[in-house]
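Hello,

Our lab assistant flagged a job as stuck in the queue for most of the afternoon. It eventually completed. Since we weren't sure the result was trustworthy after the delay, we are filing this so someone can double-check. Below is the sequence as submitted and the structure that was eventually returned. Let us know if re-running is recommended.
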Amino acid sequence: MHTRRRSMAVVVVLFTTLAVAMVWGLSLRLQAQLREQMLQQAEARALQLADAMGGQLQAYVQLADHALASLRERWPTSPGSDGRWTQQMLDGLPPGLVSHVTLVDAEGAEVFNSLGSPLQEQVNDQFVWGALMYGGDQLEIGVPVQSVHNARPMFVLGRPILHGDRFDGAVLLWVSTDVLAQLLGRQALTEGDVVALAHPDGRFLARSRDNAIAMTQTLPMDRPYMADRSAMSGVYLQQGVVDTVTRLYGWQRIMPTGAVLVVGLTESGVLKPLAGAQRQATLLTALLSLALAGIGGWIGWLQWRLESGQGEMRQSRQRLQEAQQMAHLGHWTFDARSGQMQWSDEVYRICGQDPARFRPDFDAYWRQVAPGERKRLRKAFDAALVDRTDLDDVHRIVRPDGTERFVRLICQSVPQGQGRTYRGTLQDVTELRQAQLALERVNNGLERRVKARTRELQALNSELESFTYSVSHDLRTPLRSIHGFATLLQESEAEHLSDEGRDFLRRIQESSRRMGVLITDLLSMARHSRADMHPEWVDLSALAQQVVAELERGEPKRTVRWEIEPGLRVQADPMLIRVVLQNLLGNAWKYTGQTAQAHIRLHGSGVSEDGQLGFCVSDNGAGFDMAYGDQLFQPFKRLHAHHQFEGTGIGLATVARVVQRHGGRVSGEGVVGQGASFCFSLPLEPVRQFGDTTPTVPPRR
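-- returned structure --
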């Protein structure tokens, strides 16, 4: 007798230990899954923030590069002759970002600085000086140095002055790392987050927190953007170099400088919304474990008393029911051959039924299962019957009073004679399920905050585009005055001017005309960047034929062999995709202008693995050097001289912007003297813009 009692006690202890271990395992696994999910969401958020902030910072770099190009064109003949004009160029940049501008000769000695300070004998940033001398005609970025004029930490954005292949000096903009750090600090989300800009060699250029300390630090080579210089963006989790705080970093490379914008979200801040839910889940799991332990103790004690005699059996059964009620756990049996089913008292309570008036059977339980889950549960139960396997399922039931409860149904089959008997448990897990739903609501709240931040960043980009549009529009009036007065001077005073004077006058007229074309193109690019998108299925072949007809009407004497592949269709905004074709076909028309037997082709390139539909425009015209291929789609970048082919360098930048807004890609290949090919791809399904509720238009058959 004592041996049997000890055996039953061991079984109860093992069962209770297993149940507690399962509860804790499920709870910890759920918390780990939620933590991993929140980190994945934070990765996407950090990458989105880096992409948005990187786009804004790249716009600042492009504005600075445009200022350098303008100063380089104006200053070589009379450096600093028009201080007001120079100040206007600096005022076009964020306030205080650029401290001053200098012009240096081929030896590195200052020829002019906008501060009016004494001229220095040599540039103190030898890193950028070497790049300017030997790097060709491209924008170069320096490392932080102490300015000799105001003793503040700064770095250089510079352009070389070239005459043919000869280096004659450079124009330099001096960027304040302190002001840039303040601009980056405005973008931080929480107190512990950080935004930084790093030089391609790993040295900090600016940091929203501890900027002075960061100027003495260098990023290690284990950062992904240092290990792979061709990578453009990514995420990683690591300790910070400056303050050793663990953060989740999203980064974006800023072209053409190669600098890297890094947005760091603290790991503790990312997981902070989960802490309360974790404490609740841990507390609930602990309480449930205590309840299970208590149940195990009650069951063991009841089993022990059961062996003592019939007199104690009724009391043991009552205590077993109390234990089941404490754990919200009841048991049942079902004989498939006779159709009879038996429920414990706790099953009646869970289902909200009165044992005196309700007779349990298989169909009665199915009627209590929530309508939306009956089909799934019946399919799982039938599969268990066929395969003779156990069933463990969580679903909803509806009580007679209309309330819903989440229950866990466990079913085991027990062979008995020729028929089949099933037994199992039914546990009320509503509180645990509600805790899980509370955690899901926390996640949904995080997603709403991410969307709100995305809207704010989109508003900032919209303001920047509006600023570009306004500046370009306001330049028209003074430009028309310059051109008008130059024309009047030529008409009335040309005979009194020397040959050199008339040449100067002609240059003024030509420069103002080119500036007018540039402003028109800038306004066009800004308008296309701000236009609302309404994707629909577009006949790309028919649209291309219309563009070809317009080009031929402009130059009717030219003979070009066109090859437009029929039946090309794509989902895109009709107006914006027309702009893409006008620029690509127009470029092909322009750069085949000196080709005897010009041939231009538009054809499809099929569907890529990621669901992008590709198209290419090819020609046999002037082509270009692939060494400068990274400048193709940047504003104001031209690979041919003005006397060879007219243009402003805005067309391909507009193409890239329109294609990117559609969620596509664009690339170009060329060989000098043999022609060029520009390919773009658009998604089969249009990219959904934030807040867009327009339904996808199905293709016409």
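-- support follow-up --
The delay was a queue issue, not a problem with the job. The result is valid. The longest strand covers residues 404-416. Residues 299 and 320 are 6 Å apart (CA to CA).
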